[in-house]
Amino acid sequence: MKNKLDALRTEFLQQLTQAKDEEDLRQLEIKFLSRKGKLSEIMHGLKNLDLKLRQEIGKSANQLKIELQNKFQEASKLMKKSIVNNEYVDVTLPGINRPQGHLNPITLVQNELEDLFSSLGFMILDGPELESDYFNFTALNLGPDHPARDMQDTFYIDYPNRQGEYDLLMRTQTSPMQIRAMNKYGAPLRALIPGRCFRNEATDARHEHTFYQVEGMLIDKNINFAHLKSFLEIVGKRLFGSNTKLRMRPKFFPFVEPGNNGEYTCFLCGGKGCRVCKYTGWLETVGAGLIHPDVLRAGGIDPEIYSGLAFGFGLNRLAMLKYNINDVRLFNSGDPKFLEQF
Ligand code: DAH
Question: Are 132 and 161 a contacting pair, CB within 8 Å?
Fold first, then answer.
C-alpha cells in the first residue's frame, strides 16, 4: 500500500512538471485529485485493511493528498502568471466581429427635431397611445358625426373605461396631446410631442397601420401666422439643408383655423421637378395652423387672451424623404439589412 502511494506521488509530480497549459492541468486534476481520481481509489481500498494498518496508511494518504493539492495549486498559479507574461497579440488574426446596434431612422429624425426644438425653449412631452375618443377626436373639433373621422379609422378597444363607456381607441394622431398639455401646463406653452400613432390602414408602400408623428405647439399672446411660418422654415432647413424653401397652402384641419399644408422644395431636385416630387418641385410634409379657439377652450385657455400655433409632422414621411426610403413598411420590419444602413 505504501508503495502504491509513493508510486502515485512520483507519477503525479512527473506529470505536473510536464503540464504545458491549463488544459493539461485540468486533466491532471481529474486524473489524480478528483472524486474518481487515483488517490480516491487508493483511499477507497483502505477499508479492506485491518484497523491499525488502515489508520497508518490513511494518515499517509491524507498527508499525500494535502501535499499534492498544494503542489497542484502552486503549479496552476505559476501557469496563470506565465500566460499573462507571455501574452502577445497576433495582429494578423481575423478580429472578433462585435455587431453594433443601429438607431432606427425614425429615431434619428426624432432626435434631430427634439434637439432643435429644445434649443428653442420647447418641452418634449410623451403621451398615451391608448387614448379616449374625447381627446383624440371630440376635443379637437371632430365631434361624433364629423365626416373627417372617416379618414382616421382606428383600432377601437373592446374594454370599457372607468365610467363604463366604450370610448378607448389607439390614437390616430399626436394632436390629442395638445389638449392634455394645455390642461396640465396652461399658457404660455411650448411643447414638442413625438409619438406612435395607429390607423386602420390596408398597408402598402405608402401606408402603415403603425407610424410616428411629432406634434408641435406654441401658445402665447399675439401668436400669428408669421411665427408658424418661421418655425416650419427652420425645420425644413435643419432637416433638408439651408437652401430649402417652404410654401404653405390652405388645407382644412378641424382643430386649426386657418389650416394649411406645409410643403418643402424637393430635396432631390431642389425644386426643378423630378420623380420624387412628382414633377411639382414641392413635397407635402406638414399639417399646421393657428389653434382653433374651441380647441384652446377645450384645453382651458381663454382664446380672447391667448393664441397659438400647432403643427404635425409625419416622422415616417420625414425619414423617407431624408434618407430616400421607398417603402414605409421597412420601418417596423425589424430587418437588420435595412437598419444597418443608418
Ligand atoms: N394631426 C394631423 C394629422 O394627423 C396633422 C396636423 C395638422 C397636426 C394640423 C397639427 C395641425 O397640429 O395643426 O393628419
Answer: yes
Residue with cell 420647447: 122
C-alpha to C-alpha distance for 105 and 319, rounded to whole angstroms: 6
- Predicted TM-score (pTM) of the model is 0.73
Residue nearest to atom 4 of ligand 1 (CA): 173
The answer to whether 331 touches 208, Cβ cutoff 8 Å, is yes
Ligand 1 site, residue 253, Cβ cutoff 6 A:
yes
Q: Are 136 and 129 in contact (CB under 8 A)?
A: no
How close is the Cα of 303 to the center of ligand 1, in Å? 20
d(CA 329, CA 342): 16
Beta strands in 42-143 (DSSP E): 123-124, 130-132
* CA 263/CA 283 separation, integer angstroms: 5
Measured distance CA(37)–CA(16) in Å, rounded? 15
112-154, pLDDT tens digit by residue?
A: 999 999 999 999 999 999 999 999 999 999 999 999 898 999 9
Residue to mutate (ligand 1; options 113, 150, 175; most atoms within 8 A of CB): 175
* H helix intervals, 214-339: 225-240, 293-298, 315-323, 336-339
270-297: pLDDT as tens digits: 899 988 888 999 999 999 999 999 999 9
- Residues 76 and 88: their CA atoms lie apart, in Å, by 20
Residue 271 main-chain phi, psi, to 5 deg: 110, -5
Q: Is the CB of 313 under 6 A from ligand 1?
A: no
